[in-house]
Amino acid sequence: MKEWRGYAGHVLDVDLEKGTTRTYPLDPSLAADYVGGKGFGARMLSDQLPVHCSPLSPENILVFAAGPLTGTFAPASGRFQVCTKSPATGLWLDSNCGGFFGPEMKAAGVDMIIVRGTATKPVMLVVEEGSARLVDASALWGIDTISTHRSIRKMLGKEFRVACIGPAGEKKVAFASIISEMRALGRGGAGAVMGSKGLKAIALRGSRGITIHDPERFLTICREAFNELAIHPDTGGGRQKYGTNVILSCMNETGVHPVRNFQGGRVSGHDEISEDRIAEYFVRNRACYSCPIYCSKIARVPSGKYQGAFTEGPEYETVWAFGAHCDNPNVESIIQAEYLCDYYGMDSISAGNVIGFAMECAEKGIWTESDIGFPLRFGDDDGIIKAIHLIGTRQGLGAFWGEGVRKISEEIEGTAGFANHVKGLELPAYDPRLSTGMALAYATSDRGGCHLRSWPIGEELLSTRDRMDPFSKEFKAEFVKTQQDLFALINSSGLCLFATFALNLKQITPILHSATGIEAFSDTNELLRIGERINNVTRLFNLREGLTRAMDTLPRRLLTEPIPDGPGQGRVAQIDDLLEEYYMVRGWDGGGKPTEVKLRELGIERG
Amino acid sequence: MIKIRSSRCTECQICMQICSWTHWNEINPKRARIMVEAEWPENPSIRVCVACKDRECVSACPTGALRWDEWVRMDAGLCDSCGACVTACPVRGIEIDPTTRFPLVCDTCHGDFACTKWCPTKAIERSARP
User: Fold this and answer.
1) pTM for the model
2) Which CATH number applies to A244-426: 2.60.40.1920, 1.10.569.10, 2.30.110.10, 1.20.120.10?
């Protein structure tokens, strides 16, 4: 049997329908061609998911996958990935999460867990030292994620690491998340898929070690990487102090911080919410496994209306979603809102989007106070909190809102003009009208409106080192393509995207190679090619599930309504000619399909 | 000995990884001689042998497998994995190795203190011998 280096070397395959689990060895060629994480998920779903299956049907498959660096002491290597077909978009979904669950997967002896079918009653998957069993979880059904964590650890032992869903996942909210110790596999509704399968939680424990191919080289390179992260002004400074909110005022000043459901580009009197205002609530730092950046903060509200509210965060995206997006200056209510999103197990970006969208509907008279049951106006923090409860429990209009912005806008006439989503996934906190790179990144992201496939904002508005003009289209297609390939690789390796702020691929390549000893990982260009391969596989997956060129676009508001204020005043988002160029750079035809030549070059068989 | 400031700890477990790496040549925090323990959202605590004067582990050992000589040393031929030392340690600084079933006690890497060199927040630091 193959001696694995870096990898645990096993796949756990769970069939909830039959109630069986089986373990088999990891395929060495899968590892060499797709690295891990997102790459594994892309291959599995393409090969095994029935075409056009409904995301919430028993046919859908959930893949949890760690990378070869997950659980090692490469810096920021606590990440793992869930891949499935998204109920929000009906397309490809991968969602990434840090913390300790991924490393524990490796310690328990598995690189990948594949979950199929639907259980007849709620179950929990318990993996202990490489052996798996399904346990009745009826008693946990209906319980919030925080209590679920506590109960499971009380039941099994506190050394268990847990990923679970809350009431939102059980009730199949389209943007329900999977929560692992208050960190989320957030976007795209993987929690709803888990809920549809009747799988309440996965709990893991193990004591297996990870062996490294070239220990001395690995140790030296990791030490250098740690030093690199420590001296970088973001990963060794701002992010440690403010967490992800480090960019908050900068984003607002540059005018890419959308307010009132993308009606404007920046908050007036922005001191009301700034990174310093938020940092006042931080009580301590927390890190994911093996991470010196410790961007996680525990925030607590000491007094006032939201006294006692606490969360791990609040993260930049949440602060925007319930802050600027809803025109809400109350930081304490944002902390409470993030806590509630974790409690119910749903994505805070999408939840904030839905609420901001509903606020605009209410403003336009589409819903009245009596339809909703309470006043829901921009800037009203009480309304936000009540709306979260409504969605989390799917009561009243919340049952409908839980379908996400696209579904709502399809059913309510006259709302499509301000429904801000791409392919069904609501947009995050960057206005693409000010950033041609971000416009292209949103339009071409494989999981819909997402900032983590490519994030040109860094070069367009934050960096002085390799600055690109945010209004120009020059080199944006090349940039977005290359960064998408890099991020796909990073999300497959087990490293965190934040590590790439300080480390370039030249520094990451020897980490991957010395850990695994896999020859293909010794070359930077080859690794980028693996990233490109993964992106082409997810593209093929999306095309077969019904993606068309017309869906590679942006919300109507951003294409037609100019920004009223700030540095981007008067601008609208433009995408058409840039998209054309992007397809060309990618080696895709005019309809956005990978050409035979490209697929051959990447070693992918069509299908 | 190792000076501990738990309030600086971020739970990253780098100390545990370096410890297992140094002693066993594998990355396995479960085999570390230093333990970070945290129950979210409570503050973490760091558990490790603090080289106390009482050496209750040594006196609790029924087989005479433990003795003090700069650090706690164990004679594997005498240890029967009873765990009396684990219970006796007043700072819960001893764990049983899941692989060998022998107790894991900090040996300061024979004076090298590898974990303290990697801690990103200086929650653990090398301090002068008492």
Assistant:
1) 0.96
2) 1.10.569.10
